[in-house]
Design brief:
- The protein is mostly beta strands.
- The protein has one helix at residues 251-277, and strands at residues 7-9, 17-19, 42-44, 51-53, 58-60, 63-66, 73-80, 83-89, 92-93, 101-104, 108-111, 120-127, 135-145, 152-154, 158-160, 165-170, 179-184, 187-188, 204-207, 212-215, 224-232, 235-238, 242-247, 301-304, 309-312, 322-323.
- β1 (7-9) and β2 form a beta hairpin.
- The longest helix has 27 residues, at 251-277.
Length: 340
Amino acid sequence: MPSAAWKRPVEGPATLRRPLGVAVSSQWPWSPQPGCLIGAVNLKSSNRTPVVQEFGSVELSCIITDSQTSDPRIEWKKIQNGETTYVFFDNKIQGVLVGRAEILGKTSLKIWNVTRTDSALYRCEVVARNDRKEIDEIMIELTVQVKPVTPVCRVPKAVPVGKMATLHCQESEGHPRPHYSWYRNDVPLPTDSRANPRFRNSSFHLNSETGTLVFSAVHKDDSGRYYCIASNDAGSARCEEQEMEVYDLNIGGIIGGVLVVLAVLALITLGICCAYRRGYFINSKQDGESYKNPGKADGVNYIRTDEEVIFSKPGNPGEPSRKNSVPPWKLCGSPRKISE
């Protein structure tokens, strides 16, 4: 066992030193007499940023490198969302870690069956009453990785040439947040079509953070089978592929449809005009009562009902009138005068 001695310089500028004769004990643990505090507790960790996948196990390393206290007090605290809770206190596992954690090597904390809610800051605190510096602490950041689940993809089924199209991909379980990539016919798409000559006939942009694939103007070459993959350090997952068809606009068909609509409107307008000329929009008196047409000077009365036009000759009120139905195709013609 090596020996040691304490020395102090003599008074004045001389550099000669002489031993004081103070022996250093080789016994450990060593408990100093009350009032003799010469140590300082210090902590270190072999890994301050451990990473573990969900449902695995992890050790939060906290090691005492220097202390004169044989039985220091150990505490572990969890800091999450601005709240601090005990996970080891009074020599017992506390809170959410009960039944799936233990203390290793006096100060380190081991956790089994880790879940995503265990991702947090953990603080190891040691109190050594017999040390000159009684308290020390160390912070450890635990990251629990969660594999993504199958993302939800939305792909438009049909888009006309030249129109904008947006494809969506979203996943909510992965931790850390996954990155997204899109595939067309099993070929990965770049984040920008302009960056790859292979896609010079396309015009799209992919946001790998949000999973959105936007075509500013689709081309025929953009037709195909699309699917998305969400991935992080814990794994990846993909959605089912979906077909997107890009079709040409039928200009001739559109023009023909417009012409048909215009023709129908013209026929309706013509029918309204004819009905107006025949007097269908003039309030009539009771059925069978004649009225004088001021535009006719021949002395012939014209009588109409709701369903037919009746012509009668004046002068014989008791004589039954003769009815003469007018075909629909002659409604717009001038009314005919019935001879006596």
